[in-house]
From TrEMBL:
Gene3D superfamilies: Tetratricopeptide repeat domain. SMART domains: TPR. Coiled coil: none annotated. This is Uncharacterized protein. It comes from the Eukaryota. PANTHER family: MITOCHONDRIAL INNER MEMBRANE I-AAA PROTEASE SUPERCOMPLEX SUBUNIT MGR3-RELATED. InterPro entries: Mrg3-like, TPR-like_helical_dom_sf, TPR_rpt.
Length: 378
């Protein structure tokens, strides 16, 4: 081979480009796991983190306490927020329920008076405390007159006064109740309103005067109520009954007895509570006439009738009065064990109707007989 041909071949071999597939093969070879392993093997292994030691156990303990305290504070904060939110939701829900389902508030009274009246509703029904309820209603009445500038003769103000009178009467504040009922009654009369609402107010006034032994005013209001009663036989019977009680307290039994007999005949058989009240009044009149056995019979009949409807306020009140009366008659006959049973029953009835005045009177009778029985044993 000539020198010129040899040099030509060498030049071609040097200038010939490397095939693409060959370069890719070389790159993949360099990236292969074996090569990577070899490369990692060349790197010296990292040393594990050296263990740390503390020279102050107190500082370490305080650090742990602080971290735990932070965690407890977070949990407590979240709990407080959750509970507060839940309580607020329940409270708002109760306001909505009272407002839209049970006791709507006149819109002209505003937000503050509405909340006061809702509080009064709770204290009148769910958790009875009529002293607190009367305070709430009185404050709502003040807002209506002084802040909202409602007229005294407006229906809203009259209804607030009637409600306040009801709560004061149940709280035992009889004079305050008479004042509010009388104001409401006069406002209704001035408006020319002699309807059932005015008659009921007059009856309540007569009842309250009867309770404080002001028989003259009691008769005046009861007579007016009876005269203005129209087609409501039940209301008329109740007024007649109270008037008969007035005459019985004045020991004018000749007037009281025919009124009660007439009322008992007029009472529907379905109205067991009113029937019980009339029977109890007959018992008191018979006792006043000296007919003790008949009086005890009527008292027992009143107790039995009252027990027929223990969800009715009138039945509960009558059951308490009749039980107390029968206990007194048994005590006078020297039958102290049975008397104590009826006194206990009277106290139970008074607790059900939340009548603090009657309850105190029944408890005095109960304690007196308990003391008598205790002395007999000794």
């Amino acid at each position: 081979m000539s020198a010129s041909r040899l040099s030509t071949l060498l030049a071609k071999s040097v200038l010939r480009p490397t095939p693409v597939n060959a370069s890719r093969h070389m790159a993949s070879t360099l990236r292969s796991p074996r090569v990577s392993l070899l490369k990692r093997a060349d790197v010296p292994p990292s040393h594990p983190k050296d263990p740390s030691f503390t020279t102050s156990p107190y500082n370490e303990a305080m650090g742990n306490i602080k971290s735990q305290a932070k965690m407890v504070a977070k949990i407590t904060g979240y709990t407080v927020i959750s509970v507060t939110t839940a309580v607020g939701f329940v409270w708002q829900l109760s306001h909505w329920y009272i407002e839209y389902m049970m006791s709507p508030t006149p819109p002209e009274l505003g937000y503050q008076a509405r909340n006061l009246l809702h509080g009064a509703y709770i204290r009148e029904t769910l958790a009875p405390n009529f002293e607190v309820a009367s305070f709430y209603v009185r404050e709502a009445l003040r807002i209506a007159l002084e802040e909202k500038h409602l007229e005294e003769s407006s229906n809203t103000v009259i209804q607030l006064r009637l409600r306040l009178a009801h709560d004061e009467a149940h709280a035992g504040n009889l004079l305050d109740a008479i004042t509010e009922y009388t104001r409401s009654w006069k406002l209704l009369i001035e408006k020319g309103d002699h309807t059932k609402e005015a008659v009921e107010a007059a009856k309540h006034i007569g009842d309250l005067y009867l309770r404080i032994s002001d028989y003259e005013h009691a008769e005046e209001f009861l007579a007016w109520a009876l005269h203005n009663t129209q087609d409501d036989n039940t209301l008329k019977s109740k007024i007649t009954l109270t008037l008969a009680s007035l005459y019985a307290l004045q020991r004018n039994f000749q007037l009281a007895l025919p009124l009660l007999s007439e009322t008992l005949k007029a009472v529907p058989e379905t109205d067991v509570c009113l029937k019980a009240i009339v029977q109890n009044q007959l018992s008191e009149i018979m006792f006043g006439l000296g007919k003790v056995d008949e009086a005890m019979g009527w008292a027992q009949a009143a107790i039995n009738a009252s027990a027929s409807d223990l969800k009715n306020q009138d039945c509960l009140e009558c059951g308490g009065v009749a039980s107390n009366n029968l206990g007194k008659m048994l005590e006078l006959k020297g039958e102290f064990d049975q008397a104590l049973e009826y006194y206990n029953q009277a106290v139970t009835y008074s607790l059900s109707v939340h009548d603090s005045e009657s309850r105190d009177r029944y408890i005095l009778n109960q304690e007196r007989v308990q003391e008598i029985l205790k002395n007999k044993v000794q």
